[in-house]
């Protein structure tokens, strides 16, 4: 790969200017610890932003962690401190010793460090990112935004997907050998990894960060992570990183009061405090903080080749009143709750990212009804290209957790999401947040007996797969993890010793591959022409039916979902086009744990129904999703001949036709 990190002697005047302007989008090339050569000597140049510090020194084990005799030099009118130290090599542990404006001295990890000690140790580690030989050129050349392509994301927590027998973690390199074949077999297009930036506390899941530029050392080195992403790309698997620009942890060695003052965070505690999480918000109006955060986003895409970022907790950034009551927040200059600095930051972020990486995925986890999240900045939007559809998730899970008797009274939870389905470019998430803290696993959310729980989960995943929008499923949901996610141990892989869970896994894989093959399920995901109700109104029987459409009429799929454990033997559906319809996918197949009732192709009748001139009558299994497809002329003719002939009485004309084709 090209060597992105230059060997300059110090940060240039232009970089200083851009850093303070908030537009130094690759500030990691200048700030931090860089192995270099100056005046013929090998060593490391350290550069750190600490504008209110009286003194900054380099502290390490070679000076007993006291930096008073190894000072950095303050650059005039910059707030930056820098110095070249000869003889320091890769792997050296270090911190900055900072004396704040009040005379207090303390140690801080490097905000721009590329590597860190394994927790609970907290020192930064000198590390070079140059030299890794990438092999994913083909992937990067052909990779494009998936607006009209399938995108089915498997969300994982790296440390608890699988663990070694002694409970220790697999490394980035070891996980490449374990996870990639599984993803390929299951038919996912992307992996989304929960935050990997260095964090001190395992049970924060990576959402409370101290080292924004340091991949967590729990699983290996920076180049080990490069290897993992590289291997994924070579296997045609995209990789998305969960990214946390909204807040940071209060740990003493981190960003809080970095130079003895609120440097990275807002000075006003009413804007800085995230009381629900015990964290601090970045000061999005400060240009140097913008340079830091936007550089960090570009860093993961450039240095580690991630395909995109899932931007965490956007709502907490754009709303001053997030999880705060009146009096706990300061309204903006117009008297509103919008954080104008945060919205400007997000627009600047997305413009910078897409200028550098036009086909990157920038996915907002935004849980309110904030408008135009995925609209371009020049149209007044925030500039993301995808948004998690939290409304769909909440409505859907509320519905499937409702007992069967009460479901007819909550039918609107199935029909209302289509009203806003095309207001943004949506991803439909069934994420980690929905299977923790007493919320139960997806399987355990389902009402009914043992078999009905599995049938209900098959319906839920089928409903997600056939609804408009890209897809995301958290690990464990694919095989029916019975208890909610435990954030310390691995998934309950032993459940695959039981037939019901094996069949559930087989169902999910079959559903994923069916999704990949059927253009109607993704080609028009973001246009209303890709969806048409057949009947949204059958609340009494808890059945919905609709068409998903591709660009070609022959790709259309008729989807029928029964949310009750009751079979509907004679269920009539209106269709616009007459012909023979064939069942192409059913969650009720015996191999998936269903009844396996055989359903032969059904020919439509000229009976008006659901506002259509034609209709067909089918049998709808209990708690099931059935997907039908109109046969083409050739397929329909072959089917008719097969039905009209016994196996021993093949018409001579057909035998002649077959013989002519083979000569």
Structural notes for this entry:
By secondary structure, this protein is α/β, with parallel strands linked by helices. It contains 15 helices and 29 strands. Strands 9-10-13-17-18-19-20-21 form an eight-stranded parallel barrel. The protein has a six-stranded antiparallel beta sheet with strand order 22-23-24-29-26-27. It has a four-stranded antiparallel beta sheet with strand order 1-2-5-4, with no helix packed on it. A hairpin with a 5-residue loop joins strand 6 (93-99) and strand 7. Helix 3 (172-186) packs parallel to helix 4 (222-234). It is elongated and about 90 Å long. The protein starts with 12 loop residues before the first helix and ends with a helix.
Radius of gyration over C-alpha positions, nearest whole angstrom:
28 Å
Determine the mean pLDDT.
93
The proportion of residues forming helix, as a percent range, comes to: 10-25%
Describe the sheet with the most strands. Answer: 8 strands, parallel, barrel
State the end-to-end CA separation. Answer: 55 Å
Helix/strand/pairing category = alpha/beta
Can I get a quick summary?
By secondary structure, the protein is an alpha/beta fold.
Please render the helix and strand layout as text.
Layout: H1 13-21, E1 32-38, E2 41-49, E3 55-60, E4 73-74, E5 80-86, E6 93-99, E7 105-108, E8 124-125, H2 137-142, E9 152-156, H3 172-186, E10 190-193, E11 197-198, E12 211-215, H4 222-234, E13 238-243, E14 247-248, H5 269-272, E15 273-274, E16 279-281, H6 287-303, E17 308-311, H7 314-318, H8 340-356, E18 361-364, E19 386-388, H9 390-400, H10 412-415, E20 426-430, H11 442-445, H12 450-466, E21 470-474, H13 499-517, E22 531-538, E23 543-548, E24 557-562, E25 568-575, E26 580-586, E27 602-603, E28 614-620, E29 624-630, H14 633-644, H15 652-662
Helix pairs in contact: 1-6, 3-4, 6-8, 12-13
């Amino acid at each position: 790969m090209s060597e992105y990190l230059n060997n300059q002697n110090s940060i240039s005047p232009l970089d200083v200017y851009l850093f303070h302007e908030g537009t130094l989008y690759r500030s990691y090339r200048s700030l931090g610890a860089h192995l270099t050569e100056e005046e013929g000597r090998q060593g490391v140049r350290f550069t750190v932003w600490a504008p209110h510090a009286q003194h900054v020194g380099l502290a390490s084990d070679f000076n007993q962690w006291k930096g008073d005799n190894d000072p950095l030099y303050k650059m005039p009118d910059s707030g930056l401190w820098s110095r070249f130290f000869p003889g320091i090599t890769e792997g050296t542990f270090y911190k900055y010793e900072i004396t704040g404006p009040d005379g207090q001295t303390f140690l801080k990890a490097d905000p721009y460090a590329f590597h860190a000690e394994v927790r609970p140790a907290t020192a930064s580690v000198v590390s070079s990112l140059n030299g890794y030989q990438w092999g994913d050129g083909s992937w990067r050349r052909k990779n494009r935004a998936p607006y009209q392509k399938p995108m089915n994301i498997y969300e994982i927590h790296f440390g608890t997907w699988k663990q070694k027998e002694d409970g220790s973690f697999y490394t980035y390199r070891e996980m490449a050998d374990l996870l990639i074949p599984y993803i390929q077999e299951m038919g996912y297009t992307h992996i989304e990894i929960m935050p990997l930036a260095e964090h001190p506390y395992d049970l924060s899941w990576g959402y409370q960060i101290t080292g924004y530029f340091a991949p967590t050392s729990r699983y290996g080195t920076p180049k080990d992570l490069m290897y993992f992403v590289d291997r994924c790309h070579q296997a045609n698997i995209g990789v998305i990183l969960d990214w946390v620009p909204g807040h940071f942890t209060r740990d003493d060695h981190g960003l809080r009061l970095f130079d003895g003052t609120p440097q990275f965070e807002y000075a006003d505690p009413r804007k800085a405090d995230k009381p629900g999480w015990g964290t601090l918000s970045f000061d999005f109006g400060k240009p140097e903080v913008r340079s830091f955060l936007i550089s960090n986003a570009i860093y993961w895409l450039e240095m580690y080749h991630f395909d995109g970022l899932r931007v965490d907790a956007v709502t907490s950034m754009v709303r001053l009143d997030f999880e705060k009551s009146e009096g706990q927040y300061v309204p903006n200059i117009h008297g509103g709750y919008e954080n104008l600095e945060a919205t400007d930051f997000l627009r600047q972020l997305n413009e910078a990212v897409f200028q550098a990486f036009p086909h990157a995925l920038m996915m907002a986890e935004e849980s309110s009804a904030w408008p135009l999240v995925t609209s371009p900045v020049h149209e007044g939007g925030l500039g993301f290209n995808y948004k998690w559809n939290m409304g769909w998730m909440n409505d859907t899970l509320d519905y499937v957790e409702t007992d069967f008797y009460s479901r007819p009274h909550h039918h609107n939870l199935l029909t209302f999401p289509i009203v806003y389905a095309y207001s943004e470019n949506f991803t439909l998430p069934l994420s980690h947040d929905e299977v923790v803290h007493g919320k139960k696993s997806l399987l355990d959310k389902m009402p009914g007996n043992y078999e009905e729980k599995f049938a209900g989960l098959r319906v839920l995943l089928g409903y997600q797969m056939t609804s408009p929008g890209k897809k995301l499923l958290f690990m464990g949901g694919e095989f029916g993890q019975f208890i909610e996610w435990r954030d310390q141990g691995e998934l309950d892989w032993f459940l695959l010793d039981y037939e019901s869970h094996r069949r559930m896994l087989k169902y999910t894989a079959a559903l994923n591959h069916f999704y990949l093959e059927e253009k109607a399920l993704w080609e028009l995901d973001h246009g209303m022409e890709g969806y048409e109700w057949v009947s949204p109104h059958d609340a009494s029987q808890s059945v919905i039916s609709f068409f998903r459409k591709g660009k070609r009429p022959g790709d259309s799929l008729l989807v029928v979902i029964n949310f009750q454990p009751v079979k509907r033997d004679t269920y009539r559906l209106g269709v616009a086009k007459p012909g023979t319809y064939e069942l192409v996918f059913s969650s009720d197949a015996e191999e998936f744990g269903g009844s396996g009732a055989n359903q032969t192709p059904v020919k439509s009748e000229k009976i008006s129904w659901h506002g259509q001139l034609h209709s067909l009558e089918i049998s709808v299994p209990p708690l099931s999703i059935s997907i039908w497809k109109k046969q083409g002329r050739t397929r329909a003719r072959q089917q008719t001949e097969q039905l009209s002939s016994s196996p021993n009485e093949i018409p001579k004309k057909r035998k002649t036709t077959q013989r002519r084709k083979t000569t």
